[in-house]
Amino acid sequence: MTDRPLLASVLRLAALTIAALVSAANGGCSGGAGGPIDPASEPSPTAPSGDATADRWSGTWTSETTVSGSFVATFTRTGDTVTGEVSFTGSPCFAGGRYEGRIDGDELDGVLRAGDIRVEMRATLSATQMNGTYFTANAGACTGDRGTLAAHR
Question: Are the CB atoms for 59 and 45 separated by under 8 Å?
C-alpha cells in the first residue's frame, strides 16, 4: 500500500538533494554550470500506484551564501527506499547526480552523489510540497556549503 505522505516525503528529499548540490556548488565557487531547467516543461507527477512509485518534483535551492538556483528531481520509491536523479542550475561545481535515501513517515533522509561529490539532504514532505536542508560534505571548493530547498509536484 502506498502512503501519500511517505511519497511526498521522498519527493521532498529528492528536491532537497538537488538543492543541496546546487547550493553547495555555488557556496564557495563562482561561475556557473549546467543549463537552465524549465519546471513548467516537466510532466506532472503520476499518482502513486503499487509498491514502487515515481514522482517528479521541481523547485528552488538557496545556499546560506545567498546563491540560488532551480532543480528538477525524479524519484522512485520501493518500500522505504527512495532513489532517483536530480538536475539543477546555478552551481559551478556540478549539475546533478544520483539520489539514494530512506523515507520514514513524512521525513526523507539521503545522499546525492555525483562522482566523488556527496551532498547530505533531509526534507519534510506533504502530498504536494517538500521543504528541507542540505549540507555539502564533499564537492571540492564547494565543500561545507549548506542551505535550504523547496519543491512542489
Answer: no
Sign of CA dihedral 127, 54, 82, 23: negative
Between CA 8 and CA 36 the distance in angstroms is 25
Can you give the pTM of this predicted structure?
A: 0.67
Rounded CA gap, 130 and 76, in Å? 15
CB 133 within 8 A of CB 122: yes
Average pLDDT per 10 consecutive residues for the chain, totaling 153 residues: 46 45 40 38 37 77 93 93 94 91 94 95 92 94 94 93
pLDDT at residue number 24: 40
Q: For position 13, what pLDDT does the model report?
A: 46
Which of 81, 87, 76, 116 lies closest to 18 in space, CA to CA? 87
Taking the C-alpha atoms of residue 81 and residue 88, their distance in angstroms, rounded to an integer, is 22
The single-letter DSSP state of residue 19 is H
CA nearest 136: which of 19, 6, 2?
19
CA–CA distance, 15 with 8 (Å, rounded to integer): 11
